[in-house]
Fold:
Amino acid sequence: MAKDSDNAGIEQLLETPDLADALESDRFKQFLDHVPVAIAVSELHPAERITYANLEFERLTGQSAALIEGKSWDALPSHVTADDGRALREAVVAGDDYLGTFTIADAETTITVDAWSTMIQGDDGSALFRLVALAEVRPREDSADLEQRLRNSDTLLRELQHRVKNNLQMITALIRLEARNLPDDATERRFDRLAGRIDALALLYRSLSDEGVGESIDLGIYLSEIASSVMRAHAVEGIHLDLQIDTWPVSVNVAMPAGLVVNELLTNALKHAFAGRDGGTITLHSIVDDTGCRVVVADDGIGLAEGVTWPKAGKLGALIAQSLRQNAKARIEIESAPGAGMRVTIFFARADAAPTEG
Structure:
């Protein structure tokens, strides 16, 4: 009986435009090939087999996707090993979340990577796919104060592993939600939006990887980097950015959803706020005072149409905004009227957004 139920679930999955269908799309593969993390995906049913590996995965492992697709994780090269002798191909199926640090060595080069594995679940909570990600660990050029760094290394490594694991979970959620119900005639715009979200997380990942980073991310610097990235990606003649930023350290759990919300709002403004107009101004202010920080994203465009709200219930933007409210107890105010532009104000109290100490 259970077997029949499993088969029915598999048939339903195969008939649903989901991640498996998206991975058959050349556009989706081209997008994943530019994600700044090495990614390989396997289907779990009816038997686990690798269905996709991106270009970064090929580069790091030195093995082409053609050689491993359709095979089990045993097809991964045996020379990808941890200090304790574990091979990556064995660790993948034996664990979940953070797998450890592995060395990829051949006759010419030696690369060190951190490895993660996470399950992608269906709507009923059952595991459908396994996603494996590798991130190259680059050596530090500055070796000053090595003794102190060694004393702190265990704590810092655990912190970084936890943060990157959270980022990876967010990335897999974004990919799955965006790939869902993907029509055959989908345009590049959906992947542009997804790429923007991944870019925002990549900026955060780079900040976490910088030397000396402890418990905090400078929200002002992070938001200005996101604004620069969005403006470059969606440059529109006649649209100007009014940027005013105060530096302010916040916890990583605040910076991540804040960056995604700002990325979403800036992208929306560039794509929709000035339809039928020659241009205008987009505002991004992040101003700090004794009470906390106010982040304002606004435009002088056409505003939301009558009856339209942001964020729209059930959409990813609403989930990100809710995460911001939960992680930082943020207050979000939206003002808009047809022909009068849109203004979103996000307020963080100092105590609620402060980095965790200790």
